[in-house]
Amino acid sequence: MAQARPDNTSKLTPINEARLELFLLVKENLQADDPAPWRKVNQQEIDWNARGDADGYTLGVKQNTLAMGLMKRALLLGDLTACYYEDGQEHDLPAWIWEEVRGIDASILAINPLLPDQWWSLSGRKIYLGKDALRQWLKSINWKAIERSPDMPAPFDVADKPLLITVRDLPSRVYVSLTEAMSWVAFGMSLDHMRLEYASVGYDSERELLGSKWQEKLKDALNRLIEKGLSGEVGFVGKYVDHMIDHGQAARSESANIEPLKLNDYAKYDSHTGGLQFGNGLAWIQEGDHSYLVPSARDDGFRDVKVKREGLMREFSNSSRDSKPKKKRGRKKGNGSMDIADEPFIQKMRVLIESGEANSPHGAAVMVAPKAKGASEASTITRLAKRYRDQSKNWS
User: Fold this and answer.
1) pLDDT digits (tens, 9 = 90+) for 197-212
2) Which domain covers residue 265, as residue numbers?
3) Residue 326 within a domain
């Protein structure tokens, strides 16, 4: 379903357009040197994309890398705040979420699929920046002293960041998708097709949680499910099609019980259709960030396969991970003594910002932090910037 377009488009800029605007400024202000020394452009990239201008292509890639880094750093520090649009209202995104997204060069949000459900549900949203805030930030950039590093700062609101999920129960439905069943048996986390696909590529944190042998675990889970299906202990339903790629036939077909004996021949999991092809194992194999199809001896199979939840719970609940939610560990809020100690510095930051000596809460915090209390200067800057933002919301 198409997303609603904001009513106040004159006040908002899609994040991909903002990044392009920043990229053009990088090109204009940094022409003579290497804007991103850490970004290595390999020969294969050049051969595929350079169109005869290797130097120009390489410089453009590095300029874009720097532009994305500058914008991500601003979002993490709170110098910029992104939002999405829903139900006629703008909703600000937390700064910490930019540690858990796949790039900022697209107009939509691609979120870490192992974030809790309320955050994962935002994946695919169109993202905007306020035009006035963007203009002010762009004007404040000191091109002679910009941060050129692939290392990103901690988000100013890192204390609010939730833990990634390590358990997720099966949906409370009579039938669950084959993908949800397999991921639950394999990892203790019931993930739908898109969530599992995202979790298998592009994020080191998910690969760490799913384990380096995640494909072997999925294959083992599939084999165990098939065995229970063959014995009749777990029921399967699906849509039989003459050609697995025939979306039209799948749309016209009705789901029906899959006879247990059929699972002896149709036991190859096809993640693209959520179904079972002729053969066994996985139809799509992931290597790095690329996947390839393992051909099947036949074209037919079952699409949109679902598994009966009752049988899954009976046969696999003991082997799946304990589904009790883990408590989020973190420091308890203090009794306010640090709030009192910070108050003079917050007021000093207000003066610095209102006088124009500092361009952002983070910039003001950097200036006052050396005299403030804290475990480290970096943590003190983060704390003061966050408290300034929280208090400034109530200032007239």
Assistant:
1) 877 765 554 455 577 7
2) 175-316
3) no
